[in-house]
Design goal:
Elements: E1 2-7, E2 25-26, E3 29-30, H1 31-41, E4 46-51, H2 55-69, E5 72-77, H3 85-93, E6 100-104, E7 107-109, H4 111-118, E8 127-132, E9 147-150, E10 156-160, E11 168-176, H5 178-189, H6 196-205, E12 209-213, E13 219-221, H7 225-234
Parallel strand pairs: 1-4, 1-6, 4-5, 8-12
Antiparallel strand pairs: 2-3, 6-11, 7-13, 8-11, 9-10, 9-11
Helix pairs in contact: 3-5, 3-6, 5-6
Length: 245
């Protein structure tokens, strides 16, 4: 299976630690490398990375990482990386064959989350989103979280940072089908900015957006120095420089 990693944005809140968010080290290893290693652990055999800010540095690192880990890593450079993240999904999904694992470059996940997502493949759903029902999880920033309202069948009703009713946190990892990029395009055509959440919400209205409860599995969104420090302090032991994937 392919993995698509969105790594085009600026990451201003981590700029004091590193000029490139994907290349910011966690316990000595760049976030993007840890993400790719975990995807490989889950069974991914090819990776597409959408680049933008600091593209040359990121792409140079990815070329070296591809040789070192013996996995195909294909960079796709976004011309205007200031656009909402759904534009990155559209660009990257065009390089993926069939369904793919969709990850945000500033999120880290324990491999079982990604393995469980891959196992969710179903013709009934256009996407499956990993969600955390622990609303008091200390590794989640409530001021930056994307919240998810979920119905009794585990389908997404609403998603967003400011929705009034919610049950879980969007973890930033999806099993996506080609329908996701189509939904983002449709949202843009309807006048929406083109965020990933715009596309997910469109699929939710069609009852085609499912969820996967991650239970107590470890994950983190590394958005600022505080959560970077938490990542270094709490990452499972297999997030280490000696891991071979």
């Amino acid at each position: 299976m392919d993995a698509l990693i969105i790594a085009a944005g600026y990451g201003s809140r981590l700029a004091g630690l590193s000029p490139s968010k994907p290349l910011t080290p966690v316990n000595g290893v760049p976030i993007i490398e840890l993400s790719i290693r975990q995807a490989m652990r889950a069974g991914v055999t090819r990776v597409v990375v959408v680049t933008g800010h600091e593209a040359l540095r990121v792409e140079s690192f990815l070329a070296e990482l591809s040789r070192r880990l013996q996995i195909v890593i294909e960079p796709v450079r976004l011309a205007d990386w200031s656009t909402p993240n759904g534009h990155s999904v559209i660009a990257g999904a065009a390089r993926c064959a069939g369904n793919y694992l969709l990850l945000m470059a500033d999120h880290l996940f324990s491999a079982p989350i990604l393995s469980a997502l891959i196992d969710q493949s179903s013709d009934a759903h256009a996407l499956t989103l990993a969600v955390d029902w622990r609303l008091n999880n200390p590794l989640v920033d409530p001021d930056d979280a994307t919240w998810v309202e979920i119905d009794g069948d585990g389908l997404i009703v609403a998603i967003g940072k400011t929705i009034a009713h919610y049950h879980a946190v969007d973890c930033g990892a999806f099993l996506a089908t080609p329908a996701l990029a189509e939904a983002i395009r449709a949202a843009i055509a309807a006048g929406q900015p083109g965020s990933l959440s715009d596309g997910v919400q469109m699929l939710a209205r069609q009852q085609r957006a499912a969820t996967l409860d991650i239970g107590t599995a470890w994950w983190i969104d590394i958005d600022d120095p505080h959560y970077h420090a938490l990542a270094e302090a709490t990452a499972p032991c297999h997030f280490a420089p000696t891991v071979d994937g």
